[in-house]
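User: Could you go from structure to sequence for me? I need the amino acid at each position, not a summary. Structure tokens:
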């Protein structure tokens, strides 16, 4: 699949990814989704596809088959004011391989796009927002667009179906393999047809899917998060998602058997540096004994009785920590290995809906590989900037019902999103608190962070909203991209020592308001530049699959002329704000809202870069996370009686935080997981 569609399917929008839902009771207003662009004169025939974000119409793709055999594709969607608008023209050879590609428009963050690919004989050349190259290629090869349409995945699938051994070299690099998997019948609007599922490997951490119709043309792409299907066939999407889910489920079970060993009857980890998360110190030469899924004993080497027949692991030169917790995740079943390979044994889903837990049940049972999950249920208001959720509230009755449903699902907290009416916030907070739930979220439009805290917020997501608290006169509406660009432009020159800043921090301290800063995503927005590996992923990019690695060249926000250093300085201001939070005793939790696992390591590195001691950062990622999620009785520290969720890393991350990347063993619920094996499953170099 080309890069733009891959980013969409990966959920790079910084939002939730739970299961595909039927259209919400409160439908997306027509203004939210762009109107499909018609085909130009001279087209032979055309197809219009609907892009659905969690069941809500958000965009389209128009595919035009021209009389000369070329394709013209128009693609656009609206995601809270963000989203691409692209026009792509492609010509093919007799084997269905692209000869030329021309794409123009703008990307998700409104950066201009002018992508070109051309093949002449054995010579190929390409230029896009992040790459430029020319080479001789000895054989067949398929150029994977950096920006473009969903339909490109079908062209690759069709070419693979006819290719020798179902393999094709990719340009600029890599190789794809794939074949037809199964054919199913679907119905919608009184019509029926057969569609065939094709699997394609080599573009991501795991195989991808695309559906072709009886004539071998593109039918659609579906997932738990986003789907593209022909207009009128939207009701068929859930059935196709379920077909894919069953295939993935079987594959995940098989993978679990290769990377996981059941909990031994007894296991002793000896000679370890043990990170004491209660005191944020390392205790050398320690032994930890596990019995089943619990920690049985902890003490200095030689002082702890090791049961007869216990399996023993010598941890000399390594540090043993409680399992890490990513406090801002948007999980889907395909992400379990990514989290666990990084030592993240617990996460908090920050955009859950009542049907979400069922999709991740196999993680909880251990049938497939994945972390423990606690859930924060999302609530938003309907409108052109609504989040991709079906839990939409426009009045008090709907808000009361939403909180009731999230409470009935036994969720930890309510997350209020950007389009909720400010007047509903105190009522939602009161309802949630009466039901024993915490309250957090974005700061709704036309409201400040201070007002949200006074209205009942227990926690604020994202560092930008702390700065926007002081920019309310200039940026009253925080639903669209201005909530990023205004901070990128203003934070660098904002006086963090001012009286109003001190008063706000004092309010946060008095209320015990927790901050979930997600610094890593702002590093990507403010500091990353197209054509350069994003700084947050520079340490791992070389180990990743080729097409995944390309994504880290994408860059961040469009940078106005003369503002490059300003944007970089604004990110440094965010780091200084984090240091102020810590200095003032304001609780912090570590979350990512980004690529599972690897982004969490970077988040911790950024906290150290901001001035927090590494041991304190590790305490935030373990004990403090367990405290906020009300699991400190079972998790967060290495103590007898607690659940056996542990991570063993090479080196000492309390002195060099980047050692947290050197994961050598992961233990969850007493079972042993091999990080190298998990990385191999994902196509990552061990």
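Assistant: Here is the amino acid at each position, in order:
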């Amino acid at each position: 699949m080309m890069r733009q569609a891959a980013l969409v399917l990966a959920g790079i929008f910084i939002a939730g990814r739970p299961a595909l839902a039927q259209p919400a009771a409160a439908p997306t207003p027509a203004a939210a989704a762009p109107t499909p662009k018609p085909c130009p004169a001279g087209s032979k025939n055309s197809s219009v596809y609907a892009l659905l974000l969690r069941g809500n119409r958000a965009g389209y793709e128009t595919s035009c088959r021209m009389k000369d055999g070329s394709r013209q594709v128009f693609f656009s969607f609206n995601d809270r004011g963000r989203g691409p608008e692209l026009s792509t023209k492609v010509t093919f050879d007799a084997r269905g391989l692209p000869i030329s590609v021309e794409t123009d428009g703008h990307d998700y963050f409104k950066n201009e796009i002018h992508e070109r690919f051309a093949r002449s004989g054995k010579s190929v050349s390409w230029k896009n927002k992040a790459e430029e190259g020319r080479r001789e290629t000895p054989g067949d090869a398929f150029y994977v667009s950096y920006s473009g349409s969903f339909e490109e995945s079908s062209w690759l699938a069709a070419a693979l179906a006819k290719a020798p051994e179902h393999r094709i070299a990719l340009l600029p690099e890599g190789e794809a393999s794939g074949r037809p998997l199964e054919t199913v019948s679907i119905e919608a609007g009184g019509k029926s047809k057969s569609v065939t599922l094709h699997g394609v490997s080599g573009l991501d951490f795991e195989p991808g899917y695309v559906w072709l119709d009886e004539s071998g043309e593109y039918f659609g792409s579906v997932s738990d998060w986003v789907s593209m299907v022909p207009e009128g066939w939207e009701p068929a999407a859930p059935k196709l998602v379920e077909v894919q889910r069953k295939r993935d489920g079987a594959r995940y079970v098989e993978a679990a058997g290769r990377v996981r060993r059941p909990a031994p009857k007894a296991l002793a980890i000896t000679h370890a540096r043990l990170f004491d998360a209660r005191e944020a110190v390392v205790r050398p030469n320690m032994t930890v004994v596990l019995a089943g899924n619990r920690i049985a004993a902890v003490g200095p080497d030689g002082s702890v009785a090791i049961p007869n027949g216990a399996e023993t692991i010598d941890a000399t030169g390594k540090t043993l920590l409680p399992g890490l917790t990513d406090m801002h995740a948007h999980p889907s079943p395909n992400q379990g290995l990514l989290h666990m390979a990084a030592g993240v044994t617990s996460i908090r889903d920050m955009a859950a809906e009542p049907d979400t837990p069922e999709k991740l049940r196999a993680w909880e049972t251990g049938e497939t590989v994945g972390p423990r999950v606690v859930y924060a249920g999302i609530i938003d208001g309907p409108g052109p900037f609504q989040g991709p959720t079906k839990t939409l509230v426009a009045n008090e009755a709907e808000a009361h019902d939403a909180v009731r449903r999230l409470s009935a699902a036994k969720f930890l907290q309510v997350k209020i999103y950007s389009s909720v009416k400010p007047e509903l916030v105190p009522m939602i907070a009161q309802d949630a608190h009466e039901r024993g739930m915490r309250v957090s979220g974005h700061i709704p439009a036309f409201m400040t962070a201070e007002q949200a805290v006074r209205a009942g917020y227990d926690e604020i997501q994202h560092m930008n909203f702390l700065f926007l608290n002081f920019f309310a006169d200039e940026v009253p509406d925080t639903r669209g991209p201005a909530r990023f660009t205004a901070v990128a432009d203003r934070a660098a020159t904002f006086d963090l020592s001012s009286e109003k800043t001190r008063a706000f921090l004092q309010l946060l301290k008095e209320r015990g308001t927790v901050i979930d800063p997600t610094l890593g995503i702002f590093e990507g927005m403010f500091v990353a530049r197209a054509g350069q590996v994003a700084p947050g992923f520079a340490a791992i990019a070389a180990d990743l699959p080729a097409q995944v690695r390309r994504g880290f060249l994408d860059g961040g926000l469009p940078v106005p002329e003369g503002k490059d250093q300003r944007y970089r300085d604004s990110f440094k201001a965010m780091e200084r704000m984090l240091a102020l939070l810590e200095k003032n005793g304001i609780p912090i939790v570590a979350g990512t809202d980004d690529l599972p696992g690897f982004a969490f390591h970077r988040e911790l590195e950024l906290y150290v870069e901001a001035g927090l001691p590494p041991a304190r950062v590790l305490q935030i990622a373990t004990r403090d996370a367990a405290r906020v999620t009300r699991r400190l009785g079972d998790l967060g520290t290495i103590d007898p009686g607690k659940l056996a969720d542990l991570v063993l890393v090479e080196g000492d991350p309390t002195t060099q935080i980047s050692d947290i990347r050197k994961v050598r063993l992961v233990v969850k619920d007493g079972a042993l997981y091999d990080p190298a094996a998990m990385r191999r499953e994902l196509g990552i170099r061990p």
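One structural detail worth keeping in mind: Residues 276 and 282 are 6 Å apart (CA to CA).
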